[in-house]
Amino acid sequence: MKKCIVFFTDGTEEIEALTPVDILRRAGADCRLVRVPADNKTGRTAVGSHGITVVCDAEISEIGEETPDMVIIPGGMPGTVNIGADADARRIIVSAFEKGKYVAAICAAPSVLGKLGVLRGKNAVCYPGFEKELTGARISDKKVVADGNVITAAGMGVALDFALECAAALFGADAAKKLSAGVIRG
């Protein structure tokens, strides 16, 4: 079974976190929402950037040394900053990338990948205004970009497309098309 984790902390954009969890679980992944502490708070509960309280599946301290098949970083403020400031989150992201596993980030969160050197030589996109933080990336005009084992997206409005791209990476294009066909879209 494919394993993925989606980080969540105080100030995370809820749709950018929960949409990939939902789609990847529908695809058959063991996808866990993982609480990253902010301000030294412990527990599995965090409050997103729009005041929605979310109960995560695990705390980051409970994540062992096994590298998941995919690590997803949602945006939102100050969630992006909180995740980027966490040593365990940075370690997991870099480990996954270096082992050829997928790392995916949406909205402001590609800035975390840029600061970690993950985007060097990669095509990437982010929320407008964060481009300068995508160190070493070739900025794309697309809304969702997959380049090797890195997936980035522009923001909340493309959360479903981002999630489907993550599903395609883990399960193949046909699986993602099947998932997409089951979603009524405008």
What are the SSEs and their pairings?
Layout: E1 3-8, H1 14-27, E2 30-35, E3 45-47, E4 53-55, E5 58-59, E6 70-73, H2 79-85, H3 87-98, E7 102-106, H4 110-115, E8 123-124, E9 138-139, E10 144-147, E11 150-153, H5 159-171, H6 173-181
Describe this structure in words.
- This protein starts with a strand and ends in a 5-residue tail after the last helix.
- It is built from 6 helices and 11 strands.
- The protein has a domain at 3-104 and 159-181: Class I glutamine amidotransferase (GATase) domain (Rossmann fold, 3-Layer(aba) Sandwich).
- The mean pLDDT is 96.
- The chain is of the alpha/beta class.
- Strands 5-2-1-6-7-11-10 form a 7-stranded mixed β-sheet, with helices on both faces.
- Strand 1 (3-8), helix 1 and strand 2 (30-35) form a beta-alpha-beta unit.
- It has helices at 14-27, 79-85, 87-98, 110-115, 159-171, 173-181, and strands spanning 3-8, 30-35, 45-47, 53-55, 58-59, 70-73, 102-106, 123-124, 138-139, 144-147, 150-153.
- Helix 1 (14-27) runs parallel beside helix 5 and helix 5 (159-171) packs antiparallel against helix 6 (173-181).
